[in-house]
Amino acid sequence: MAERVEKGSGRVDSPAKLTGKLKLTNSSTDQPARLIGGKILYIDDQGQIIKIGEARTEPTLKFSSSYDTTDRLDPGQDMTQSVEVDFPATALQAKKLKEIRVELAYIPSAYKLQTASFSVSISGQTASQ
Fold it and tell me: Does the reported pTM lie above 0.90?
């Protein structure tokens, strides 16, 4: 992460960006999840959120539309997504950035495989099913 500043004018020529790959794993054994979106927070050495700055975009994550199967993460499944978001210039100062936090929004699937057992009565006889 670096920010290029034009000599003389001090104008930011190329704002700082965070680039990388985000790998998500559904560690559930029986519950798929539909990924909605998320955001990236930069936390300073005092535990406060570092603001991105004026005229810059807050870092968000977007996943495929709900009609596409790529936004669904089945149990045990991994997915990787490329990330390129704005990075706060103040976080480039020595020892200013403490952590980068990713907050995800997802919906656990309501559909789970379940079984039920019950007794039924046929012509006065009881059988178990």
Answer: no
- 10 domain residue, yes or no: no
DSSP state of 10: -
**Are the CB atoms for 51 and 45 separated by under 8 Å?**
no
Tokens representing residue 119 in the block = 């007794």
7-36 residue pLDDT tens: 676 666 677 888 888 888 999 888 888 888
Query: Is position 78 within any domain?
Result: yes
Q: Based on the number of CB atoms within 10 Å of its own CB, is 95 exposed (0-12), middle (13-18) or buried (19 or more)?
A: exposed
pLDDT tens for 46-63 read 999 998 877 778 888 887
If we measure between CA atoms, which residue out of 78, 82, 64, 80 comes closest to residue 18? Answer: 82
Domains in the chain, number: 1
Residue with tokens 């539909």: 34
Amino acid letter, 64: S
